[in-house]
Structures are given as C-alpha cells and as structure tokens.
Design a protein that fits this description.
mainly alpha
Length: 150
C-alpha cells in the first residue's frame, strides 16, 4: 500500500529526529566519559598535592573549586554509573503505520524539522517616526553651531 504525502512527511521527519537524538546521545556519552576521566585525573592530582603537603609541611589546596564540587558529589562514580546503566541505541523505534490524517495532504513546512518555509515572510509594519517640531524661539542649527561659550 502506497503511503500518502502526510505519512511520507511523518516518516521523513521521524527519521531526522531519530538521527538528531542519536547524535546527541553520542555526544553526551563522549563528554560524560571525558568528564569522568577529568574527575579521575583531579583525584590523582589531589593525592599528589596531599602527599606534598604532608612531606613539606605546607598547606596547598588539593582541588580547584570546580573539581572539589565534582568530587564531593561523587561525580565520577555517578557518571560511570549512568554510562553503565545505558547503552547506545537502547531506545529502538519501530515505525508503525501512521493514521492518514489531514486528508493525506502534507502539513505546512516547519523550521523545527529543518524544513525551509517557502513564501513571503510576514513582517510587522515599522513604527512611524514622529516628527519633532522645533521650538519657537530656537536658533537655526547653523547659528547654534557657531556660538561659543566665553
């Protein structure tokens, strides 16, 4: 059975949305792993700073404010746990037959779906500038420019 324009439009829009979701998931996984690794590196640096503080009898901060906050919130463990609980592509989408809506006709183009909206854009009218009348006893502009303060 052939798909109507409405159903084809849905299929095209859904495929694009799934691709965007997959790209976002891929980036989130990559950045989560990078952040987790950075927190681990900060913990290694903190251990070295702590050892130096003890050996030399100084008191140098072991963490930066940001890495301290991430460490205090068990950041690395939480991130690793989220990554372990989720796998890429786990949200599989099965295409169901979409009911034929809108009489089978495509919906208007929508920029949300990356579609170019054809036609003349509607532009609100520009506000009308109000003319300002000069004061009755004001000197002409040329005369005002030549005046000097003594």
């Amino acid at each position: 059975m052939a798909l109507t324009a409405y159903q084809t439009q849905f299929k095209r829009r859904m495929k694009r949305a799934i691709r965007l979701r997959a790209k976002a998931d891929q980036k989130a996984r990559r950045y989560t792993k990078l952040l987790s690794d950075a927190i681990g590196a900060a913990e290694d640096a903190a251990m070295q700073m702590n050892a130096l503080n003890q050996i030399y009898g100084v008191d140098v901060s072991t963490y930066t404010l940001l890495t301290q906050a991430l460490h205090a919130d068990s950041g690395q463990e939480v991130l690793e746990d989220h990554l372990a609980q989720s796998t890429p592509g786990e949200e599989e989408v099965l295409f169901n037959q979409v009911p034929d809506g809108n009489g089978g006709q495509e919906l208007p183009a929508n920029p949300l779906f990356g579609e170019v909206v054809a036609g003349t854009p509607i532009i609100a009218p520009a506000p009308v500038a109000m003319a300002v009348a000069p004061e009755k006893d004001a000197a002409p502009v040329a005369a005002r420019e030549t005046e000097t303060l003594d």
